Amino acid sequence: MKLRVLFFDAVGTLFRVRGSVGQVYSQVAAEYGVRVDPQALDRAFGQVFAQAPAPACPGLTGSPLREWERTWWRQVVRETFAQVGSLAAFGEHRFEDFFAQLFEHFAGADPWELYPETLPALRALQQEGIRLGVISNFDSRLPRVLQQLQLDPYFSTLTLSTQVGYAKPDPRIFQAALAAHGIPPAAAGHIGDSRRDDYQGAKAAGLRALWLDREGKDSSCPERIEDLWGSLSMLNGPKQN
Fold it and tell me: Is 119 found in the same domain as 139?
């Protein structure tokens, strides 16, 4: 079946944190007089984020959903600073102020940067007449981020785990994205940097899938690309293994 829609993951696929999460956390914390090693924060964040519950809460919309998202991220940030022994340095009130600033900071363009090929690759796909969408385990801040990074004109749909109530690799988030376009799985593709959440999740849901392996971690995957230019291979149909 001809490819009609191509979905992308967001963070780690279309854009990345400028520097590192630890560097951003450290810079904002310094404004509150808390000095923390960015590399230690990176290690702690990686552990905490990997162990956090899925960023999805079925049944919530509007303000209750946005408060749930803030609470989810507040816990991740608290545990990250607790692991490096710096949480107490804030004090409870100042930590809340710090978190509010940090949470809002990640809703803008400053902490993010596009991969060099993102815009030209998206333009090339649009010129081929392919509709594009985003499927992400981000939260309600993502539309603002896409707008400020000037990515929003490229995407006709945005499917967020917190809004649909299911997070990748759960097949139901992919099904929600397909339903928004009214297409079967065989008419859609998905590209992302997580082998488990993006590649395996999309394939299990019946979509064509490519794993974006920018760092060359594993050449054994037959449907692996190293940058977004590889997304153009989707136009030639599914590979035969």
Answer: yes
